[in-house]
Amino acid sequence: MARPREFDIDEALDHAMGVFWAKGYEAASLQDLLSAMKIARGSLYKAFKDKRSIYLAALDLYDKTTVETGVSLLSDPEAGDGLSRIRTLLEGVRDDEDRRGCFLCNAAIDQARVDPEVEARVAAMMRRLEAAFSTALKQSKRAGRWSAKRRTETARFIFNTYMGLRVLARSGYPTRELQAIIDAALRDL
Amino acid sequence: MARPREFDIDEALDHAMGVFWAKGYEAASLQDLLSAMKIARGSLYKAFKDKRSIYLAALDLYDKTTVETGVSLLSDPEAGDGLSRIRTLLEGVRDDEDRRGCFLCNAAIDQARVDPEVEARVAAMMRRLEAAFSTALKQSKRAGRWSAKRRTETARFIFNTYMGLRVLARSGYPTRELQAIIDAALRDL
DNA sequence: CTGTTTATTGACCGTTCGGTCCATAACGCC
DNA sequence: GGCGTTATGGACCGAACGGTCAATAAACAG
């Protein structure tokens, strides 16, 4: 019935996410986005309402990909013992070679305080990650060591460690130092 | 010999820091800064070279005040045992009632990657905080538990926890949950 | 082929951005 | 009181911002 869209909207969104991730919301200009997405202005505004809605869609994409991957890993009994899944996830942060940090964490700092919809998405992702850490703990050999309350708190502590690692990774901390932090955090679990 | 400046430059800078802290570098407009500093455009540009130099000066101010205060607390033998000084510092984050997070952490995420001078200041502050945590550990009753290397790593781990707490605090985590994270982090030290 | 619908492109819009400039004001010095 | 110097306030600047629009193109239905 009508002319079909010539670009893959998810692929374009992925590139947009890269720009927001690297530069933050305000510093990412329309020009930056258009170049990365390889489309023209008009096409962008046919596909998205405005800049903010691209950002929100990018957050959702991050949720569906990175966060979901992490949650799956933590919750998958076939990925080893609960504790070793946690370790695997944290070591993934350690190995983020381009040190981009965490889009979720960036959003929490630069937009969540001024945009309620960003705040809601950020909070939801954080709570899902926390819950996944808790699931992994519950499925570890040492699960018996923690009461339900204590397990929730421990999961939250690990999540806190995870966020810290993301910040330090973005700040250029070397792999070896990140590894030592992971070891210290998990030492007594 | 000449007309004296009518505003207190440090006080104005403190207000500018508040704006950058709350909104980030790009989102803080000249108008925002001028309103907060309560001066006119011309006066601002007599006192500072440009927007970026205000930001750098604000970072230095944060260093001289907040970071230095933290370092002093951690290093002060009269502030209790090393471990309890660490706990006091972390509980200060927990009690940050307006949940502003950490200007250092914000800068690490939103500007350090695109501005080498910001990056240098951020790295310097981070390393000083790390070192102060190490000092506090060294001066704790249980100092003997750690080799020098292990102490450095543990200090870095605590610093990582500190940064995570700052992010979570800015994200609105309730005091009680932050407290549980602190307890979990320090439990086995 | 014609008509309808929607995507593409880039010129164009008003606004806001960071930064400059200048007339005026407030000081110490002589 | 004049003079040199620096601060003040705000008009002003070009550039860049996010967003709109109209002409054109590409698809399908009839």
UniProtKB/TrEMBL annotation, chains A, B:
<dbReference type="InterPro" id="IPR023772">
    <property type="entry name" value="DNA-bd_HTH_TetR-type_CS"/>
</dbReference>
<protein>
    <recommendedName>
        <fullName>HTH tetR-type domain-containing protein</fullName>
    </recommendedName>
</protein>
<dbReference type="InterPro" id="IPR001647">
    <property type="entry name" value="HTH_TetR"/>
</dbReference>
<dbReference type="InterPro" id="IPR011075">
    <property type="entry name" value="TetR_C"/>
</dbReference>
<keyword id="KW-0804">Transcription</keyword>
<dbReference type="Pfam" id="PF16925">
    <property type="entry name" value="TetR_C_13"/>
</dbReference>
<feature type="DNA-binding region" description="H-T-H motif">
    <location>
        <begin position="29"/>
        <end position="48"/>
    </location>
</feature>
<dbReference type="GO" id="GO:0003677">
    <property type="term" value="F:DNA binding"/>
</dbReference>
<feature type="domain" description="HTH tetR-type">
    <location>
        <begin position="6"/>
        <end position="66"/>
    </location>
</feature>
<keyword id="KW-0238">DNA-binding</keyword>
<dbReference type="InterPro" id="IPR009057">
    <property type="entry name" value="Homeodomain-like_sf"/>
</dbReference>
<keyword id="KW-0805">Transcription regulation</keyword>
<dbReference type="Pfam" id="PF00440">
    <property type="entry name" value="TetR_N"/>
</dbReference>
<dbReference type="InterPro" id="IPR036271">
    <property type="entry name" value="Tet_transcr_reg_TetR-rel_C_sf"/>
</dbReference>
